[in-house]
Amino acid sequence: MKIYNIILVFLFLLPIAFAHLRVGFYRRSCPSAETIVRRAVHRRFKHHRFITANLLQMYFHDCFVRGCDGSILIDPRVGNASEKQAPPNVKLDSFELIDDIKRALEKACPSTVSCADILILATRDAVALAGGPRYSVPTGRRDGLVSNPKEVNVPKSSFSVSQAFESFKAKGFSLKEMVALLGAHTVGFTHCSLVRGRLSSFGRRDPTMDPALDAKLVRTCGSARRPARNDPQIVLDQNTSFVFDNEYYRQIRKRRGVLHIDQQLALDNSSRRIVAGFAANGESFKRNFANAMIKLGSLEVLVGKSGEIRKNCRVLNHHH
Ligand code: HEM
Ligand SMILES: *[C@@H]1O[C@H](CO)[C@@H](O)[C@H](O)[C@H]1NC(C)=O
Ligand SMILES: *[C@@H]1O[C@H](CO)[C@@H](O)[C@H](O)[C@H]1NC(C)=O
Ligand SMILES: *[C@@H]1O[C@H](CO)[C@@H](O)[C@H](O)[C@H]1NC(C)=O
């Protein structure tokens, strides 16, 4: 009886939570939309496996700022700055993949599929290609009309778990959902400049870091006296860096987290049990990750007649 009531409440609330977003939104208006995206992502992934990480970080930075409205894709113009110029975004990559997909979609169904949805679908497909979960994702987002670098306030890697959770809680996430989303750091890279503060060669070694990892990172990043040139990249997952699996959680439990926030996740009393759970059960991680991604993808979206369907993901239509 109780369970029945809960299910009923859930069924009534679902359409409110995802107002106007629905799985297969383009089934009638552009039946080939999801296939076009999937093929383009697959073609690129064969030679550029790093697109999974590029797209995941882009998805997070799009959805956390003004919701998932493609605002991250707008290029700066003379007299118009854009989110791309905010410090956390300057190293984002793979915008050309979104452009390629948009061009193909404009040919098949002009002015129909939003750039915001392209990013959502392409990321979903790239995660699956890297070994991650396969899931259906609701579509029907519209593209936003504002992209302001001053609005970009994604959490910093120097944050504590409770500081990071403050920004996720404000968006309606549970701690478990935040821990699952950070599992995206199972792929991709960071840069020496963001990790130096934890290394023995730049001052004091962070005691929470495995000394063997410290030695390895010192070889890549150099020292305060002789820093490596051009800010080298470092993999976030020290074992299976290109595979979307739960190895990230196992590595941080071995003190092999690279970013401060990653290491803290495994140590903090509030999150370490969740980390242990995901480290022990890869299927549970993937299920929780997919659900949290769908939720992240539904934040503050524009639907119906709001916003627009951009013709070029880098430019607002009226600027053409
Ligand atoms: C507390 C939350 C988070 C913090 C503080 C954080 C911080 C960072 C930092 C500092 C980097 C390295 C950037 C660089 O060196 O250029 C990074 C990379 C990355 N982040 Fe996060 N992140 C967070 C949450 C997320 C979430 C929720 C996702 C996706 C669901 C995500 C996906 C990624 C990916 C895939 C990369 C690698 C990008 C690449 O190699 O292209 N992160 N993150
Ligand atoms: C560009 O600037 C104009 C006014 O200067 C503003 O109305 C518009 O929203 C800006 N474009 C973006 C993408 O923010
Ligand atoms: C690397 O990952 C694989 C697959 O999860 C695991 O079997 C292995 O023990 C890991 N190795 C290390 C050194 O962590
Ligand atoms: C975790 O809890 C233990 C006691 O249960 C306490 O001694 C320790 O300082 C706590 N650690 C953190 C990082 O809060």
Automatic annotation (TrEMBL):
Disulfide bonds join C30-C109, C63-C68, C115-C313, C192-C221. Ca(2+) 1 binds at D62, V65, G67, D69, S71, E83. Its EC number is 1.11.1.7. One of its GO terms (cellular component) is extracellular region. One of its GO terms (biological process) is response to oxidative stress. Substrate binds at P155. Keywords: Calcium, Disulfide bond, Heme, Hydrogen peroxide, Iron, Metal-binding, Oxidoreductase, Peroxidase, Secreted, Signal. One of its GO terms (molecular function) is heme binding. Its main location: secreted. The active site is at H61. Binds 1 heme b (iron(II)-protoporphyrin IX) group per subunit. Binds 2 calcium ions per subunit. Residues 1-19 form the signal peptide. SUPFAM superfamilies: Heme-dependent peroxidases. Residues 20-317 form the Plant heme peroxidase family profile domain. Ca(2+) 2 binds at T186, D237, T240, D245. Heme b binds at H185. Its cofactor is heme b; Ca(2+). It is found in: Secreted. It catalyses: 2 a phenolic donor + H2O2 = 2 a phenolic radical donor + 2 H2O. Belongs to the peroxidase family. Classical plant (class III) peroxidase subfamily. Belongs to the peroxidase family. Ascorbate peroxidase subfamily. Removal of H(2)O(2), oxidation of toxic reductants, biosynthesis and degradation of lignin, suberization, auxin catabolism, response to environmental stresses such as wounding, pathogen attack and oxidative stress. These functions might be dependent on each isozyme/isoform in each plant tissue. This is Peroxidase. It comes from Acacia crassicarpa (northern wattle). The lineage of its organism: Eukaryota, Viridiplantae, Streptophyta, Embryophyta, Tracheophyta.
